[in-house]
Design brief:
The complex is a heterodimer of chains A (about 270) and B (about 350). By secondary structure, chain A is mostly helical. Chain A is built from twelve helices and three strands. In chain A, about 70% of the residues lie in helices and about 5% in strands. Classes of the chains: A mainly alpha (about 270), B mainly alpha (about 350).
Chain lengths: ~270, ~350
């Protein structure tokens, strides 16, 4: 098998499954929540009616919220277990960590210089700086939207804990504004960075199939490639190409998700600038 | 010809003369002029057989807004009558012939449906509120539907509401010459009046309140209750659910439903476990007004700065990346075609 045709696994099935649940619940939350945020726009009335009324949309919103909170709790528990139980301190620092490091700042600068033809492309490792930003944006968003959402879901419970009522006013503004930031970011910047930029267009399938070709890994993430080769781990990550059903299914599901995101983006833009 | 009416002595002569002219006019009936009508009805003692008055005071009708209109424009069935004195039982006057919009609004209202569907004899028709031959424009201070008089007109039937409304903040400024405060028709509309306990009404009253309370409706719509009702949810507080109806009082009044003393009970209508802490929620918080809610204002400001910062940074990043990535794609394709590094 030539290096070009060999496939390297980047994401395990459970990680891809988490991304699937993440974007499904995210799109569900956006679809059922945006009508409320833009309740003064005509499209919000149409969308709310299509969802069976704002009452039904509210029930669906809480269902997706519970799903996403469970996912988030599962992720935090996994990270905690890998840190404490398996002592994977590489999660906190080093080439495979999500934690921003000085190398990331250098690579931002180098990447921008590459944009304008003043430098070579940075030698990225397992996670690039924009991927780390995506991760922490979601993490922060989970805390902000999830926390404020829980407050608004169970206001009387939290008020009996002597939480003053104005906290709900703040929670309502936070929930809406962070939702605008999160949806706006995912449907434009994340879509471009991961799928729409010409090298990836129309879609990067790695989060569905879990794998890239060896050539692609060497070209896009040379630091990771060389590290795996040096550590002798590359063969352990090698895999036969993804089965056809997975590639095809991923393409269909991914295209549907991206299309829904773009429709919601049009709604958001129309609602904001109308 | 048998006289079916009992008239005052003066009118009787004229009527008999008209009746005598009847057979001749039978072939081509000509509509009687107002003076012809007043010849009988202008007599203040004219009555029906049962003794009820049919008098129309010429000086009252002469001052009404309809004084230049022919009697038979409203009493339309008399335009083609050749039998004088005319039968006692006439068709109902149809105001909607001229006032079409008001007429169809009325037909859809609780008043109109009570008459047409329920056959309720006491339900108001046009004349119940507007009067008959003395009808005036609503702008005329003498009109029964003038702002200064309309509460008195409505409470002739809605007796129980009068003492409640009289206490409210809306009734208080209605002194002589002051027409700024809300009267019945400002909230209930003039002709499309709905039952007060329906969800349709609870939702539509919001916009009625909002016609005067501009800042309040804007802040209401910006918060949870107002966003939900805007999308048609009736399981959410509207204006009257918190502020009551008719006995609407400022929060500074201890009797008000939104006074600090009563707020917990008011909120408990929906939020059964509401506490003193819970009711510190402001359903009218304004994210643009730091004096009303500083925490909300600053949260909003900070989130907007964050939003702008993120999109400005990544917007520039994306715009710079796109052409370079396009070039990279072409380089990759060229290399693949040359048999080197492959694209997939």
């Amino acid at each position: 098998m030539t290096p070009a045709a060999r496939h390297i696994v980047r994401f395990k099935p459970y990680q891809r499954g988490m991304h699937l649940v993440l974007f499904t619940s995210f799109l569900g939350l956006a679809t059922t929540g945006l009508p409320l945020l833009f309740s003064h726009r005509a499209w919000a009335h149409t969308l709310a009616s299509a969802l069976g009324g704002i009452q039904a949309a509210g029930v669906a919103h809480r269902f997706f919220a519970a799903l996403l909170l469970l996912l988030f709790a599962g992720h935090v528990a996994e990270v905690a277990w890998r840190l404490v139980g398996r002592k994977e301190h590489g999660l906190l620092w080093g080439p495979t960590s999500m934690v921003p490091q000085p190398r990331d700042a250098v690579q931002i600068w180098q990447h921008v210089k590459w944009f304008v033809g003043q430098a070579d492309r940075p030698r990225f490792d397992r996670y690039t700086y924009w991927e780390k930003f995506d991760y922490w944006a979601v993490f922060w968003g989970m805390v902000i939207i999830g926390g404020s959402g829980l407050l608004l879901w169970f206001p009387q419970f939290f008020a009996t804990l002597f939480l003053p009522g104005w906290v709900y006013n703040v929670a309502l503004v936070l929930h809406g504004e962070e939702a605008l930031l999160a949806t706006g970011f995912i449907f434009t910047i994340h879509f471009f960075n991961s799928h729409f930029r010409p090298e990836k267009f129309p879609m990067d399938m790695v989060m569905f199939t879990g794998q890239v070709t060896e050539a692609e890994l060497r070209r896009e993430r040379p630091a990771e490639y060389e590290r795996l080769v040096a550590e002798g781990k590359l063969d352990a990550h090698a895999s036969p190409p993804a089965p056809a059903w997975l590639s095809r299914g991923g393409r269909v599901v991914g295209a549907a998700a991206v299309a829904l995101g773009l429709v919601l983006l049009v709604f958001i833009i129309a609602g904001t600038f109308q | 010809m048998a006289a079916r009416f009992v008239f005052g002595s003066g009118a009787l002569v004229v009527c008999l003369l008209l009746a005598a002219a009847g057979p001749a006019a039978a072939q081509t009936p000509t509509a009687p002029a107002n003076d012809d009508c007043l010849a009988c009805h202008g007599d203040s003692t004219a009555t029906r057989a049962d003794g009820s008055s049919i008098a129309v005071a010429p000086e009252v009708f002469g001052k009404s807004t309809h004084s230049t209109i022919a009697c038979v424009s409203c009493h339309a069935d008399l335009a083609k009558t050749s039998e004088w004195p005319h039968p006692e039982k006439l068709q109902k006057v149809s105001c909607g012939t001229c006032h079409g919009q008001q007429g169809s609004n009325y037909d859809d209202s609780v008043h109109g449906r009570a008459v047409a569907k329920a056959g309720l004899a006491v339900a108001p028709r046009c004349s119940t509120c507007h009067g008959t031959h003395d009808i005036q424009r609503k702008g005329d201070p003498e009109s029964s539907v003038h702002r200064g008089k309309i509460a008195g007109t409505c409470t002739k039937c809605h007796e129980g509401i009068e003492p409640l409304y009289a206490k409210s903040v809306h009734a208080q400024p209605l002194g002589p010459g002051n027409s700024a405060a809300a009267v019945c028709s400002d909230c209930h509309t003039a002709h499309r009046i709905q039952r007060g306990d329906t969800d349709t009404w609870r939702l539509s009253v919001i916009d009625e309140c909002g016609t005067c309370h501009l800042a309040r409706i804007s802040s209401y719509r910006d918060n949870f209750h107002g966003q939900r009702t805007a999308l048609g949810s009736a399981r959410t507080a509207t204006c009257s659910d918190c502020h009551d109806h008719h006995v609407i009082l400022p929060a500074s009044n201890t009797a008000s439903t939104v006074s600090p003393q009563n707020l917990v009970n008011t909120c408990r209508q929906c939020h059964a476990q509401a506490t003193e802490a819970f009711v510190k929620y402001d359903p009218h918080a304004d994210k643009l007004d730091p004096s009303r809610s500083a925490a909300v204002y600053w949260t909003y400001r900070i989130m907007k700065v964050l939003l702008f910062g993120v999109f400005a940074t990544f917007g520039v990043h994306t715009l710079l990346w796109f052409p370079r990535s396009y070039k990279a794609r072409r380089e990759l394709r060229a290399a693949a075609a040359a048999g080197g590094d492959t694209a997939s």
